[in-house]
Structures are given as C-alpha cells and as structure tokens.
C-alpha cells in the first residue's frame, strides 16, 4: 500500500489555504486536513481520520485545525497523537468514539460574548489604523452601545445566527436606513475578525452571519424602509434674514454667535470649528491652523472626517477674517488655544449653536415670519450642519459653480483640496466663490456690522 508523505507543520499551514482534503501522513491510517467553503463564503478547516480494520471503514472527526496552540483547536502534532490513540483503541477492542466525545466535551472552549469581544475589536482597529478618521471610533462605539449591544451583546459569539442579526437590524433599518446599514457594516468585519485563525473566537463551520449575501433575504427591502432624511437646512431665501437677526440680536458679540457665523462662512462641519460632543478627538479650530496674512485656514488631515483626502485648506472671506479680528480684540487669540472658546477657556459646543438657532427662529415667528425650518424635511428646525453644507452646495449649484469646485470646498474628494498651500487650479476660483457666498449671507446686514458697539 502506498504510504502518504509526512508533511511538516509549515506545509500543512500552506495546504490550509487550498480547498480540498489533504493527507498529511505521519500516522497509520489516513489523517486528512479538510478545507471547505461554507455557505456564508467563509473557509472552515478541520481534521478527519479514516481507518480501515477487518474490512470496515471508520471515520473520526478530530476537531478544528490550528497551526499554533489554541484552546478548542487541534495542531498537527495533536491530530497525529489523537489518530494514533484511536488506532490503538480499535486494535485493543476499545470504543474510541466514547473517549473522543468525552474529550471534546471537556475541552469545550470558553464562549465569549459580543460585549466582551467588541472592546478588543475596537482596540485592534485603532492599533491597525483601520479608521478613516479619528471620529469613527467614538461613533462606532456609540452605535454598538445604543443599537447592537441591547439585542446581541449578551450572546456568545458562536450563538449569533443570521436570524438573530436580522431581528436586530430590521427595526433599525426601517426606522433609520443609514444607521441600520452602518450597523451591518460594523458587524460583518467584526465576525470576520472573530473567524481569523489567530483569534478563532467563532467556529469556522458557522461562517460569518452578517454578510450581505447571508442576510439578503432576511432584511427589509429598500421600499419598506423609511425614506432617508437629511440634516434640515435653512432655505436660501431665508438665510440672509437669519444672519441679519443673528447680528441684530447682539449674538455677534457672543463667542457662540461668532462660531455660528464662521461655520456658515466656511461651509465647514461643526466638529472642525467647535467641540463635537460625539468625537473623542479634538478636531475643533485652533489659532495655530489659521494664517490671517494669507487668509487661509488649514485643517490637518487627521481632523477631517475622511483623513485619506488629506489636509483641507479653506480660503477665508473678508467676513470670516472680521470674525477672527473680533475674537483677537477680545484677547482670545493664542497659537495653542481653540479659536471659539469662552473667557474661562471652555470650547464652544454644538448645543450653543442649537440654542441660537432655536431662539432666532422664535424671534422670527414673533416678527411675522415662519421661523427657520426645512419644509422638505417635515418642517424640522434648521441645523447648522445642514445649512452650512447643503445650503452652500445648493447656492453654489444655482450660481453655476462647477461640481468639482464645490466638492473641493466641502472636502469630499481627493485631489485639489488637499494641498497645504492651496497650490491647485481651484485656488483663485475657490477664493472668489467663498467671498461671493459670504456676500450673499451678509447682504441684509449693515456694512459696519463688524464694528464693536457699546452695550
């Protein structure tokens, strides 16, 4: 009878990447490393021992394959030892299946819950720099804590099935499709990480329960989900009135009010100007990033939502520079300090902008206006983010500015907007565009709006 070649641990590890049954040799009988693809598309690797005695063929499963010592898995040396023990038991008239069954029962690995593993997964992602932005870690931690942990956190990682995931994701997708999709995009790579050989928290035979392929017939169709909502914005016809009321109310003497104006003038995300309550990283504007002489504000890449797009350079309009001059006159400029901070040194937060919007909306209605609401978003009160971003892009499109130019201004694409000194073909166009936008915002304000007045 032909004898199988005895494979080394390294050769067996190489074989573990190829689908099929691989005879590893080293023991009388046939010791096979079985590599298969599961229905979920994942790879499972397990040991199988086949022995023929007295014309009878018997097959034994010896456990999951691993190339290093690991609880609940079996190395090449251990598999050969198990196979040899089974052969000896058969030759001596003992029933090896009873012993194998008891051994598997006793060696059952510790079951980890999702609540135990997700902190380890987040730490791994942070260590490997897998996030596009520092803001993503706190966002995903919050997403898991609020939406996934209540339904899945207490389950063992091997207990989680596609049905269990669908049960959690379905109401989330119906209520907020964007949040539901983000949750699925968090779960799928998490289980892929759990299945990796060096982790082996989840049995390979179970596969990944959160892939799109596995869940496609379990989740609601797009038509069943709530229509996607956007951040409400102040409509363009109302926006100059909003700015005028902000100036007339005296909020222009308030750091929070000046922060609101600066966000609008630069079409920035709030978190790049003031404190973002959900972001762990300090991404707010600091004086060291502003070059008043060149009228440029350079936001480092690591502070941007998509750091891969590079640093973001914002040309500052005359009105934006006036805001900075007002802050300097108040003695609030220092290279190491936040631009928008109170006299006590506390960075302005998003709540301050929300209060200003609410108060000005009430004041507008008292004067006979409709308040600053977005009718297309169910009459919801405008937000600073929606107005600074969406209103700016809408205005730019109506003014005939190119899509490339506005996308660069919003830091949506790689390329023209990433150079540290604005050395692009868009330099002058973007400066002109931001000045025109500022002129539109302030077209109902008096020309001396920036002048200090006695209270």
UniProtKB/TrEMBL annotation:
Integrase DNA-binding domain location: 29-102
GO biological process terms, semicolon-separated: DNA integration; DNA recombination
Keyword Ubl conjugation: no
GO MF annotations in UniProt: DNA binding
InterPro entries the record matches: DNA_brk_join_enz, Integrase-like_cat_sf, Integrase_DNA-bd_sf, Integrase_DNA_bind_dom, Integrase_recombinase_N, Phage_Integrase
Signal peptide: none
KW Metal-binding (keyword) present: no
UniProt keyword terms in alphabetical order: DNA integration, DNA recombination, DNA-binding
Similarity-based family: Belongs to the 'phage' integrase family.
Name of the featured protein: Integrase
């Amino acid at each position: 009878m032909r004898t199988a070649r005895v494979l080394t641990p390294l050769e067996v590890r190489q074989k573990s990447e190829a689908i099929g049954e691989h005879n590893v040799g080293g023991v009388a009988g046939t010791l096979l490393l079985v590599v298969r693809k599961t229905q979920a598309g994942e790879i499972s690797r397990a040991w199988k021992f086949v022995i023929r005695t007295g014309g009878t063929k018997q097959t034994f499963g010896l456990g999951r394959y691993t190339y290093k010592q690991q609880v609940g898995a079996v190395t090449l040396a251990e598999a050969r030892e198990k196979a040899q023990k089974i052969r000896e038991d058969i030759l001596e008239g003992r029933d090896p299946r009873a012993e194998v069954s008891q051994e598997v029962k006793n060696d059952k690995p510790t079951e980890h819950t999702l609540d135990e593993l997700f902190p380890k997964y987040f730490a791994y992602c942070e260590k490997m720099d897998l996030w596009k932005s520092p803001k993503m870690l706190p966002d995903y931690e919050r997403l898991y804590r609020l939406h996934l942990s209540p339904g899945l956190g207490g389950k063992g990682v091997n207990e989680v099935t596609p049905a269990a995931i669908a049960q959690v994701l379905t109401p989330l997708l119906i209520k907020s499709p964007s949040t539901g999709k983000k949750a699925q995009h968090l779960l799928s790579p998490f289980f892929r990480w759990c299945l990796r050989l060096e982790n082996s928290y989840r049995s390979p035979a179970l596969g990944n329960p959160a892939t799109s392929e596995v869940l496609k017939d379990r989740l609601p169709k797009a038509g069943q989900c709530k229509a996607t909502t956007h951040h409400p914005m102040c409509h363009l016809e109302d926006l100059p009135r909003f700015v005028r009321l902000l100036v007339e109310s005296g909020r222009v003497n308030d750091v929070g009010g000046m922060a609101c104006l600066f966000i609008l003038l630069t079409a920035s995300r709030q978190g790049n100007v003031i404190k973002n309550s959900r972001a762990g990283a300090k991404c707010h504007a600091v004086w060291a990033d502003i070059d008043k002489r060149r009228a440029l504000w350079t936001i480092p890449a690591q502070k941007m939502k998509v750091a891969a797009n590079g640093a973001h350079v914002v040309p500052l309009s005359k009105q934006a520079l006036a805001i900075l001059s007002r802050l300097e006159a108040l003695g609030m400029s220092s290279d190491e300090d936040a631009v928008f901070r109170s006299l006590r040194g506390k960075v302005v937060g998003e709540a301050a902008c929300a209060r200003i919007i609410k108060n000005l909306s009430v004041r507008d209605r008292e004067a006979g206006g409709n308040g600053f609401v977005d009718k297309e978003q169910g009459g919801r009160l405008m937000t600073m983010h929606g107005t600074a971003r969406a209103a700016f892009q809408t205005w730019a499109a109506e003014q005939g500015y190119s899509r490339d130019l506005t996308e660069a201004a919003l830091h949506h694409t790689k390329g023209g907007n990433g150079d540290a000194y604005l050395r692009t073909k868009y330099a002058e166009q973007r400066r002109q565009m931001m000045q025109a936008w500022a002129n539109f915002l302030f077209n109902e304000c008096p020309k001396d709006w920036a002048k200090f007045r006695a209270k």
